[in-house]
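Protein in question quoted in full.
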Amino acid sequence: MAGLGVAAIAFASAQATHASDVTTSNPPSHIFQINVAKGTLGALRADAQASSYIAYWHVPDYIGRLESSSKVEMLWSKSIKPGDAWATATLKNAGSTVVTQLRFAGLFRTTHNDRRGTKLSIFLSHWPTHGPPRPVYLAGKKVETNVAVNGFVFAFGLDDRLAAVSLADPANFSATRCVIPSVCISKIR
């Protein structure tokens, strides 16, 4: 399986080198369980091989540099518009197949029954060990509010409803990094 994942990444990288090469996909229809204690989104975790993401979400719609010239990201999107992204996975470096951070805006549920659409105030009451809510700004404009719980960052849209989740290894963890894929990616294009 790992060999298949590496081959798929190499093939997709060779094929999708420009934004115009983006294909499209739909987010999985099943709900991914977030286990904060175990650091998992379904069976996915940070510091995992990209092949595990491909097994879950299929070949990415785009692989390349999206937000940084030093990082390579895999992108899954509902259309060819970057603003329709529903997931990204950041690779450790250009020669690596290890994912160091994921962002997901598909269907998910926490062990406290929080899911997309949960109000920020309700979410905070479920997680007494949460970090402070932190606004995230892109180009001087507030785009989301993030709350850290262990290695996860939960992102709330401007309506203060849960919209996406991020999981990162400790070296790449940031509660102030943009998390909602459709917001983060659309702002850079």
User: Anything to note?
Assistant: The mean pLDDT is 84. The helical segments are 2-15, 50-57, 120-126, 181-186.
